[in-house]
Design goal:
- This protein has 159 residues and is of the alpha/beta class.
- It is 27% helix and 17% strand.
- The longest helix has 13 residues.
- The chain is globular, with a radius of gyration of 16 Å.
- The two termini are 31 Å apart.
Length: 159
């Protein structure tokens, strides 16, 4: 008889998105994304961080003040990184698992790339204009989005 306590596909891919978020050097918000094709194969992953060749010790991580001294003009979000990290394959009709509901800029990239569904862990910025714009664009473009159904499974491992 087979095991019954194995991870569902949603748990597996969201777990990879969470693990990817742990690569982020952002001191306040760590976001991860995992893009999967219709055959449940991982196409790409990403996390929020500075663009390639931009030393994250030279760029700011602050959240307020002079815009050029905050992270917001510089950080590449997890979903966009995952789209850009896809080497040689297509993300058309794929599912994007992300730990935070995509901002409006990432929503545009998701739509343009042809991703058909977004599964998110947190929607803590649901009342912001950015998230409202994302949902409006997803609805117009017929990109499905749904909250990850938390199962409260605990996954532990030692490195």
């Amino acid at each position: 008889m087979k095991r019954e306590d194995y991870l569902s596909w949603d748990e597996y891919f969201m777990g990879i998105a969470v693990l990817s978020s742990m690569r982020s050097k952002d001191p306040s918000t760590q976001v991860g994304a995992c893009i999967v094709d219709k055959d449940n194969k991982i196409i790409s992953m990403g996390y929020n961080g500075m663009p390639k060749c931009c030393d994250d010790d030279e760029y700011p991580w602050d959240r307020s003040g002079d815009p050029l001294k905050t992270k917001y003009l510089f950080v590449c979000h997890a979903e966009l990184n995952a789209i850009l990290n896809c080497h040689g394959g297509s993300v058309k009709d794929a599912i994007c698992y992300t730990t935070l509901f995509p901002c409006n800029e990432c929503a545009k990239a998701i739509i343009q790339a042809g991703i058909s569904e977004v599964v998110y862990l947190s929607d803590k910025y649901s009342e912001t204009d950015s998230t409202k714009a994302s949902k409006k664009m997803f609805d117009s473009a017929k990109v499905k989005y749904r909250e990850f159904n938390t199962t409260n499974k605990e996954i532990k491992f030692n490195l």
